[in-house]
Every structure is written in C-alpha cells, then in structure tokens.
Amino acid sequence: MPLQFNPQLGADGKLKHLLTTEGLPRAMIESILETADQFVSVGDREVKKVPLLRGKSVFNLFFENSTRTRTTFEIAAKRLSADVINLNINASSTSKGESLLDTIDNLAAMNADMFVVRHAQSGAAHLIAQHVKPGIAVINAGDGRHAHPTQGLLDMYTIRHYKKSFHNLSVAIVGDVLHSRVARSGIHALTTLGCPDVRVIGPKTLVPTDCERMGVSVFHDMYRGLEGCDVVIMLRLQNERMTGALLPSAHEFFKSYGLTSEKLARAKPDAIVMHPGPMNRGVEIDSPIADGRQSVILPQVTFGIAVRMAVMATVTGA
Amino acid sequence: MQLDAEPLLAELAQKIGTLPEDTAVVGIHTGGVWAAEKLHAMLGATLPLGKLAVTLHRDDFSKIGLHPQKKATDMPFDVDGRHILLVDDVLNSGRTLRAALNELFDFGRPASVKLAVLVDRGRRELPFSADYAGATMTLDPSQELVLKNDNNKLRFDIQPKN
C-alpha cells in the first residue's frame, strides 16, 4: 500500500495538527498523555491558568452541534491563556452559501493560530489542514464517522490513570460501533499503545463488517464479550439511527446491549466503565451503573480538559 | 570538573540561621528540590516541603516547545499570607526565578518571598538577587553548572553547555 499523506506530522516528526489517532506514533501518544499529567493539577489551583498560549487566537469551528466538546475545548484553550472565538457555523456564513475553505481563509486573515473543527463530513479537518498556511494548527474535534482523536486520547489517559499500563488489558467497546468515530479513534490508540485484547460488542447491523481488520475481536453476545474485561467503553446510541432499519427499538437495544449490573458482573470486579457522553440512561447504560463505583465517566470529562490542553500545547510548541 | 555541594548547603543553612515560624520551604525542580529537601531538615522547618515546576511558565516555550516530564508542582499548604523561602541550586539569568514566582503566585499571595541558592553565578538578565547564597562563582557563559544527586550526596558538575 502506498504511504498515505499524513499532514498531521511535520517532516521533523513533530505534531503540526491532530486529525486522527490512526498512524500516530506510539511515542507521540505517550508524550501527549505525559504532557497532560502536567495540566491536570492546573484545574485545582486558585488561578486556573498557565500562559503557554498567551496571545494566540483559537477558533472553535463547530459545523455540527456539540455543547460539551466545544466547552471543553474552550476551557482548555482559556486555561492556556489563549483567546477563544466560538463560531456556530450553522447559523452563519455557510447558510449564506460561503464555501468551507473561503470561511477558513477569512478567519486566517483575522490572524487565527488554531482551528478546532467539528464537522459532519468525514475528512473536513484533513481538508482544512492541507489548506492552511504553515504555523496554523488544526485540531479535529470530530469529523463524521471518521475520527474524534482527542476523545480517543482522553480515553487512553483515563485508562492509563486507573489501570497504569496497557500490556495485559482487555478493553471492550460496546454499542453503535458502525457510526462511532469515538470507537474508531479508541481502537487505533489502543492497538498502538500495545493493548493486546480489544473487543467490539454490538448488534450485527451496528458493527462494521471489516472490523477485525483493525485488530479487534467481535462479539454479538454482550455477556460473552464482557467476560474478564478490565475496561468497558459504552458508546452513545445515536437516536437518529433509530429511525432507520438498523434497530428494532431503544428498549430492545437496552435488553441486549445496555450495560446493567448483571452484564457488568461478567467483567473483572475492578473493571472501569467509561462513556464519552452524552449518555442515554436506560438505553445504553443503566442509571445505577452510570452513577456506580466503577463508573469513571465524570473523571473522563475532567481529564479531557487536560488532554486537550496537552494537544493544543503540543501543536503550538516549536 | 566536580564540586561538592554539601559544604555549600551547610554554609547556606548557617547564613539563613533560624527560620521564622510559619515559613514554608519551597524548592524549584529539579536541583532546587534536592537542595530544599536537605535545607528543610537542616533548618527544622515544620510545614511540609513545597515543590515548583516552572515548565508551564517558561519564556522559551515558543522556541523549544513543551517537553513532557514527571516533575510537578506540589503546594501542600496554603500560600496566602505565608512567608516563603524559595530554594534553587543555581541563580544565573534569573529567568527560572521569574517563572517560579509566576507559578507560585497562581496558588495565592504570599506574605514574603526570600531566595536561597547554592551558587550565585552573578550573571543576570533580570532584576533579581539572592537573599542567601552558599557561594558566588564567576564562570564562563559557555560553562554549565549542573547539580547531581548521587545517593543523596549533592555535587555540581561543571560542564560545557550543550
């Protein structure tokens, strides 16, 4: 296979943009996670700010709605002392007919230093990264079904925090894998970090047919799939998928693939439960589990800010 | 070339004398923390030792970027209204100290800050001076003074700057 053009790494091997966890060298992922360690405590200080991105302008370009992701990127940039400009593109120029790259050129003319991009089309962040001039960084905050690299990295940070190492871990990713960029980014990061057992659990209609090629094993029976797991990553069931022919009903889905204490009992007693949010209680996860002692869903949010700070600092640093 | 740092520590402790009550000893990573640990014991400080990592406040971030490291700031006491004895191994340009003060002030408003260093190299790029110095030493700017911790014995290596 020909070497794919990977615009996120510069000729010097440094991270210029963060577009996907696929093909990201292990050392780079580890470096980002270690850098994030330094930022976790910043949130506990009286002054929750460090000056690394002082004077930089970060544009949050959200072509698709996401309050939480946009907010955590905004907080991350502000804790690094950057100026943050939020653009809700749905409501602005594109609806007047401006092309994506014209929008980018206009913002670049306002001396943008970084674009954080969320787009419903896979590859949108790649397109922007190839288009911008050197010195402008692009961070993919989710593109279509393709990738959500900062979510993948914050999941790795969370797993590493609780499990210390990836060497002997069994990690199960459960639910709508087919439409999930979170699953894809997580799988690539896990295999790169040397996790020996990554499992994907879901109904046949929601698991990609070529899933095994990514180095994971596929289960359609959740009880079997969770057997002896250390980490359970639940995915959000996107309501819009219910309208199609992929699923009978939310209730049916919960019966087979909702995380309940009964199913979780198959995993190791110290297994952690993760969810990228927003959760549908009673659809993919039972409330007592979401709020239970094994749940690390809220720490994920806190770590997410530190990881996004680390990514922003890494792509900005010379 | 090597230089035993233990006599410098003794000299420094003697110059500081009695530590006013309610003073916190704070070391700057990495060498300053080693020196501060020893001074903390020698001076009989009662508050736990503080540690400052200055990476997030360095002024050369845009030139050299960020390097991941295990060193972290740890302030196990309330900084507000506290007298602080800041400890570093070497005072040279003063830039580390500038970053350390910024980091310190993110935790609160100390009542006072005094600076103790093992070696004052005398060259300065910012308006700082040490309140206590174990020794003053003039070295060629191409030379670097690096504190080493060898089984809890501190020594300086004098080596060409890389």
Please summarize the sheet with the most strands of chain A: 5 strands, parallel
Given the structure, what is the number of helices of chain B?
Answer: 4
How many β-strands of chain A, per DSSP? 9
Low-confidence stretches of chain A: none
Give a quick precis of the structure:
The complex is a heterodimer of chains A (318) and B (162). Chain A has 318 residues and is α/β, with parallel strands linked by helices.
Q: Could you explain how this protein is built, in words?
A:
The complex is a heterodimer of chains A (about 325) and B (about 160). Chain A has about 325 residues and is of the alpha/beta class. Chain A has 2 domains: about 25-145 and about 300-315, Rossmann fold (3-Layer(aba) Sandwich), CATH 3.40.50.1370; about 150-295, 3-Layer(aba) Sandwich (Rossmann fold), CATH 3.40.50. Helices cover about 35% and strands about 15% of the residues of chain A. Chain A has 12 helices and 9 strands. In chain A, α1 packs across α5 (about 150-165) and α5 (about 150-165) packs across α6. With about 160 residues, chain B is an alpha/beta fold. Chain B has one domain (about 1-55, about 70-160): 3-Layer(aba) Sandwich (Rossmann fold). Chain B is built from 4 helices and 8 strands, in the order βαβαβαβαββββ. In chain B, the strands form 2 sheets. Chain B has a 5-stranded parallel β-sheet with strand order 3-2-4-5-6. Chain B has a 3-stranded antiparallel β-sheet with strand order 1-8-7. The longest helix of chain B is centred in the N-terminal third of the chain and has 12 residues, at about 30-40. The radius of gyration of chain B is 15 Å and the shape is globular. The two termini of chain B are about 15 Å apart. The model of chain B has no long low-confidence stretch (mean pLDDT about 90). The interface between A and B is medium-sized, with 22 and 20 residues.
